[in-house]
């Protein structure tokens, strides 16, 4: 089995009369592969991301991650979604460190190694251009800065699977391209498996090995295109 496998999945929200978001959706992603998912608004891209992350159960079909059928939040996932959902009462630094408290392997070391983890969080913030903002609170940050914070939160625990749902949508074009380079460096260095939802075809082609196209709702993967080397600036 591949690292991520979605086999003939359907997703209907809200009972028999509800919205059919996905139907006969099948997807397979190799370990260490970087795929981008594009498709029209409302076709079910975010739904697909939720199913793989284990935030929602599929109505039909199966979702497998790392050889296990998904039946709840997958701890080896790092998530950054379009809406950054930072916890408002926590500092930026403590928001970035949140997954460390959730993932058991890190949680058990966090107390003894808090300073080292905090330094790592600071380093990530610096990488995305937020050096010096660790002690601020989310409401003191712009939308784009909150998105960058949420990318750091997705990376802090070095998850083998990154699920990114339009993670750069609130960024100006310059910052966005800086963040592509940051994400590409992370990927080249650690080779996590990455699934990226984007509306930006240039972003998809710049970053991904493979671009998957979804149909209009109910969504399923209807086409794919392997991105050929050499790529721009890689
Ligand atoms: P995309 O990310 O491609 O824009 P979504 O996965 O967000 O698409 O949504 C797919 C369809 O499912 C849309 O018609 C949307 O309105 C519906 N939908 C998404 N989330 C929910 C929800 N929590 N409850 C009911 N319907 C939803
Ligand atoms: P909520 O359920 O209100 O979103 P949580 O405390 O469960 O609040 O999570 C807060 C945020 O932290 C969420 O946006 C979630 O995406 C993120 N989060 C939780 N666990 C993880 C994790 N293991 N990796 C990355 N982000 C996570």
TrEMBL record:
InterPro entries: AAA+_ATPase (IPR003593), ABC_transporter-like_ATP-bd (IPR003439), ABC_transporter_ATP-bind (IPR050166), P-loop_NTPase (IPR027417). GO terms for molecular function: ATP binding. Keywords: ATP-binding, Nucleotide-binding, Transport. Transmembrane segments: none annotated. Residues 4-234 form the ABC transporter domain. PROSITE patterns: ABC_TRANSPORTER_2 (PS50893). CDD domains: ABC_NrtD_SsuB_transporters. SUPFAM superfamilies: P-loop containing nucleoside triphosphate hydrolases. Pfam families: ABC_tran. Belongs to the ABC transporter superfamily. This is ABC transporter ATP-binding protein. The lineage of its organism: Bacteria, Pseudomonadati, Pseudomonadota, Alphaproteobacteria, Acetobacterales.
């Amino acid at each position: 089995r591949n690292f991520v496998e979605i086999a003939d999945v359907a997703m209907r929200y809200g009972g028999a009369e509800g919205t059919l978001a996905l139907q006969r959706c099948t997807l397979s992603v190799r370990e260490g592969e970087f795929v981008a998912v594009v498709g029209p608004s409302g076709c079910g891209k975010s739904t697909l991301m939720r199913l793989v992350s284990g935030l929602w159960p599929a109505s039909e079909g199966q979702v497998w991650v790392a050889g296990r059928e998904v039946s709840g939040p997958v701890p080896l996932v790092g998530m950054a979604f379009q809406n950054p959902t930072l916890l408002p009462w926590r500092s930026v630094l403590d928001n970035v460190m949140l997954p460390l408290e959730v993932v058991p392997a890190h949680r058990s070391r966090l107390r003894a190694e808090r300073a080292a983890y905090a330094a790592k969080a600071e380093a990530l913030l610096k990488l995305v251009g937020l050096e010096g903002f660790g002690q601020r609170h989310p409401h003191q940050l712009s939308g784009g800065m909150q998105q960058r914070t949420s990318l750091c939160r997705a990376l802090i625990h070095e998850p083998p699977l990154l699920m990114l749902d339009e993670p750069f949508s609130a960024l100006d074009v310059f910052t966005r391209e800086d963040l592509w380079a940051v994400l590409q460096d992370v990927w080249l260095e650690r080779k996590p498996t990455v699934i990226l939802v984007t509306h930006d075809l240039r972003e998809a082609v710049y970053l991904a090995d493979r671009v998957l196209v979804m149909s209009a709702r109910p969504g399923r993967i209807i086409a794919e295109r392997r991105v050929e080397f050499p790529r721009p600036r890689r």
